[in-house]
Structure formats: structure tokens, C-alpha cells
Design brief:
6 helices; two-stranded antiparallel sheet
Length: 201
């Protein structure tokens, strides 16, 4: 959770706060004050933090809870080096690897909205026949692919949360079934325990 928070803070600062300040001055962006280096830096942070690292960490957090609740992973197992690397190190490697490869192929440019991201240069050149792309001619396809990855992660997160909800609800029902007579009403009607499943959300 700490790493997800750090990723959110970094994304909020570099993309949302600095915004068009990082965009090269030659563009038509409002308050553009940067250059190619600042534009690359902003897009690098955006891609590595949001599209890959933050999304992957959120998905793996759901997988971690499933492993602990449904598979009864012990503390010793969750703290092993293999598990720690898979849950903490692998998303960083994937995020940095993706961002570095996009930086090396000059995929980072002003996206025409409020920041630098994966975009072709000149802006919208792939939509205009008489305007050839000098950089990132396939940026639209790369960006669509990364968005598909993000949406797939969101779908997996929903699945993991549904599995977690079902498992906690099942355990709550079993606990309720074997409750002591103290938890029962005067007429023998069972009193439901706290909705633990919905609290877990």
C-alpha cells in the first residue's frame, strides 16, 4: 500500500501539478515552459507510475489477499524472498522496462491535453495525410495497448475482490452457524453478526 501511495503522489505531482509547465515551449500548450528533456521526464514518470507500477501493485494486492484468505498463506511464506520479489520487485522491473523502451524509441511527446505522454509528433500527424510523423508514428497503437493492459488489470482486480468478498462472506456464515446460544434471540431466532464481508470492501 505504501508503494501505491508513493506512485499516486509522484503521478499527481509530475503529471497533474506540473502539467503543461513540462511541455516544450514550442508547442501550443498553455503555460508551456519546458523542453524535450522535461517532457520525456514527465511522460517517463507517468507511464512507469500509473500505467504499469500503480496498476500492477493494486492487482497484486488483491492477489495477495486472496492468497492469504483463500489459500491460507502463512506469514513465513508471504515474507519469503521469492514472494517479495514477485509482489514488489517485478512490477518495478516491468514499469521501468516499459518506460525505458518507450523513451529510447522517442514515444514521449505532448499529447495535446495537459501533459506529455505517449503521443506522435507533430501532434495528430497520424490523422492528417499531409503531415508526416517525425517521431512516434505508432504511438496511438502503443497507447491503446497500454490502456488495454490497464483495463485488464482493473478486470482482474474486480475478480479478486469478488472472490475475497465471497470467501469472507462464506466464513462469516459458517461462524454465524456455530455461534453460541448467547448470540441468539429470546425466541431462538439467530441474530446476524456484523456484515464482515461488506466491511472488508
Amino acid at each position: 500500500m505504501t508503494l501505491i501511495t508513493v506512485a499516486n503522489l509522484a503521478l499527481g505531482f509530475w503529471e497533474n501539478f506540473l502539467s503543461t509547465w513540462m511541455v516544450p515551449k514550442g508547442s501550443n500548450a498553455f503555460l508551456a515552459s519546458g523542453n524535450d528533456t522535461t517532457c520525456n521526464l514527465q511522460a517517463f514518470v507517468s507511464v512507469s507510475m500509473y500505467m504499469v507500477v500503480e496498476t500492477a501493485y493494486t492487482m497484486l494486492s488483491g492477489l495477495y489477499y486472496i492468497a492469504v484468505v483463500r489459500r491460507d498463506w502463512t506469514t513465513q511464506k508471504t515474507q519469503s524472498m521469492t514472494v517479495r520479489f514477485s509482489f514488489l520487485g517485478l512490477p518495478i522491473i516491468i514499469g521501468l522496462g516499459t518506460a525505458i523502451s518507450l523513451l529510447a524509441t522517442q514515444q514521449f511527446n505532448f499529447d495535446g491535453v495537459y501533459s506529455c505522454n505517449i503521443a506522435s509528433y507533430p501532434l495528430n500527424c497520424h490523422y492528417i495525410n499531409d503531415l508526416p510523423c517525425t517521431r512516434a508514428s505508432n504511438a496511438a497503437y502503443i497507447r491503446a495497448g497500454l490502456y488495454m493492459y490497464v483495463f485488464a488489470c482493473f478486470a482482474i482486480i474486480i475478480i479478486f475482490l469478488s472472490m475475497l468478498l465471497y470467501n469472507v462472506k462464506k466464513q462469516d456464515t459458517e461462524t454465524e452457524r456455530y455461534a453460541s446460544e448467547y448470540l441468539k434471540g429470546a425466541k431462538g431466532e439467530g441474530i446476524r453478526s456484523n456484515p464482515v464481508a461488506f466491511q472488508s470492501l
